[in-house]
Design brief:
Order of helices and strands: HHHHHHHHHHHHHHHH
Membrane topology: Multi-pass membrane protein
Pfam families: MFS_1
Distance between the termini: 21 Å
CATH topology of the largest domain: Growth Hormone, Chain: A
Shape: globular
InterPro entries: MFS, MFS_dom, MFS_trans_sf
Number of domains: 3
CATH architecture of the largest domain: Up-down Bundle
Structural class: mainly alpha
CATH class of the largest domain: Mainly Alpha
Subcellular location: Cell membrane
Keywords: Membrane, Transmembrane, Transmembrane helix
Strand content: under 5%
Length: about 475
């Protein structure tokens, strides 16, 4: 489908091969893409912090959460969409489109900041534009870099994600104290990276195959309905979701060349990685709110103190992301995933046991838990590149992103339901008193059980992944 060759292809004497040229360009463009992704992602965390300020100042307090929820829904769709399109469309064209959208959204939001719905639209455009750089970064790393380089850049991508969370919270708090409108202008810094993007990003499109527009649209609608359901639960949305899934399944079965073929869906190695990804990230979104609850209801400390501790947790996640490339090189994918699951289990079960022993001890356990989640990212995404042909890496990454976001959304719904159930905290274990203490402790026990399940899944599917790795490498 593509004209690309393997990154390890051998060049003619004295003349660099196309693969070597693409590899060199990719290594030069990835820092710029990573910076643009950071600028887009930190906006998500910043507006998660200040959305109520936006609603209050524009007389839309009751609808303020839409500033965060609607861009979040769009993010869940475009993560899948962009990854898939990278198999067909030039990375350079995709990135230029994304930067243009990011800049346009910034200007629209700032100059239209007198209207709540314009701000919401601007945030949607910013979110969609900023994610292009992230999707292109991942796909280019998969397609054009060798194993060692790929692991390093995947680790850096993960580190930047968590760093942007910390920076976004700090930036949101700082700028909101002046005027939240100026926060919308932060992504304009990406203008300075356009020359590097144009010069270095590979300009290679998929050839020999038409884009499966109908299949991609059907799958994007499914992704959108999933995201909408976990933001605005409704049985009608579930019914529509079921109908579109059945329609898509029939389409894949009958279409001559769908973008998700039966061969793709029957890839046991890839599906095994998706299953592991689903379980590893199930409680990813629940990490922060549970510590807010503990700080407020058990230790009665201020939100600023909780935020300080969570900033430390994000810093640990960032550091682990930075070294995860070296860890995978030393350990390999499967042992690293086992270590990740073990750290998550220790952090969760440790928090359950130490729930009344001090907030700083719980912060240490949170660092252990988040280190486990962070460490799992590189081996999971690195496995995509060796369980799929190179020309399917884009859709593999896109579906992986969709799975990760969907899993975390379902986990957040499960977390919210349990924490809202008074009966969940009616009995504590190991001397924990009923009430808020038992509720938080029991929640950590559930999170620990999920980590153990992740470990068992890795043990169960390791042969499938390892067989694929041996074949690919």
């Amino acid at each position: 489908m593509t004209a690309n060759t393997s990154p390890e292809a051998t060049a003619q004497p004295g003349t660099p091969s196309e693969a070597e040229i693409n590899r060199a360009k990719t290594k030069k463009s990835l820092p710029a893409l990573l910076t643009i992704f950071l600028l887009g992602t930190l906006m998500i965390q910043a507006f998660n912090l200040v959305f109520q300020n936006v609603g209050d100042s524009l007389g839309m307090s009751a609808n303020a959460a839409l500033v965060s929820t609607l861009p979040g829904i769009v993010l869940g769709v475009v993560c899948m969409l962009y990854g898939t399109l990278c198999d067909y469309i030039s990375p350079k064209k995709m990135t230029i489109f994304g930067v243009a959208a990011l800049i346009f959204g910034s200007l629209l939001g700032f100059f239209g900041s007198f209207n709540f719905w314009v701000v919401v639209l601007a945030r949607i455009i910013q979110t969609a534009g900023g994610q292009v750089a992230g999707s292109v970064f991942l796909v280019m790393a998969m397609k054009y870099l060798n194993n060692k380089e790929r692991a390093f850049y995947l680790g850096m991508f993960n580190a930047v994600y968590y760093a942007s969370s910390a920076v976004g919270v700090l930036a949101g708090g700082l700028i909101a104290s002046i005027d939240w409108r100026y926060l919308l202008l932060v992504p304009l810094l990406s203008v300075f990276l356009i020359p590097q993007i144009i010069k270095n990003t590979p300009d290679i499109s998929g050839t020999g195959e038409r884009i499966d527009v109908l299949g991609i649209v059907l799958f994007a609608v499914i992704a959108g309905l999933i995201a909408i359901y976990f933001s605005f639960p409704s049985p009608w949305i579930l019914l529509m979701l079921a109908l579109f899934i059945l329609t898509f399944a029939g389409y894949v079965w009958k279409a001559s060349n769908p973008f998700l073929s039966k061969r793709f869906l029957a890839n046991k190695g890839y599906m095994a990685v998706l299953l592991a990804l689903f379980v590893f990230y199930f409680f990813n979104f629940a990490c922060v709110p549970i510590y807010n609850v503990i700080g407020d209801q058990i230790y009665h400390i201020s939100l600023s103190q909780v935020s300080l501790c969570l900033t430390i947790v994000y810093i640990v996640a960032t550091l682990v992301g930075c070294v995860s490339g070296a860890i995978i090189a030393a350990m390999g994918r499967v042992p690293m995933l086992l270590l990740s699951a073990a750290l998550m289990a220790v952090g969760a079960f440790g928090s359950a046991l130490l729930i009344t022993k001090g907030f700083w001890l719980l912060t240490i356990m949170a660092c252990v838990f988040i280190a486990g989640i962070t460490m799992s990212y590189t081996p999971l995404y690195d496995s995509f590149s060796v369980t799929l042909p190179q020309d399917e890496n884009g859709r593999g990454v896109g579906i992986g992103d969709l799975m990760m976001n969907t899993s975390a959304s379902i986990g957040m719904a499960a977390y919210s339901g349990l924490m809202a159930n008074d009966g969940f905290g009616s009995k504590g274990f190991l001397g924990i008193q009923p009430g808020a203490e038992a509720q938080a402790s029991n929640m950590f026990l559930v999170m620990g059980a999920a980590a153990v399940l992740a470990l068992l899944i890795v043990l169960a599917v390791r042969r499938s992944i390892s067989d694929k790795v041996q074949t690919a490498e």
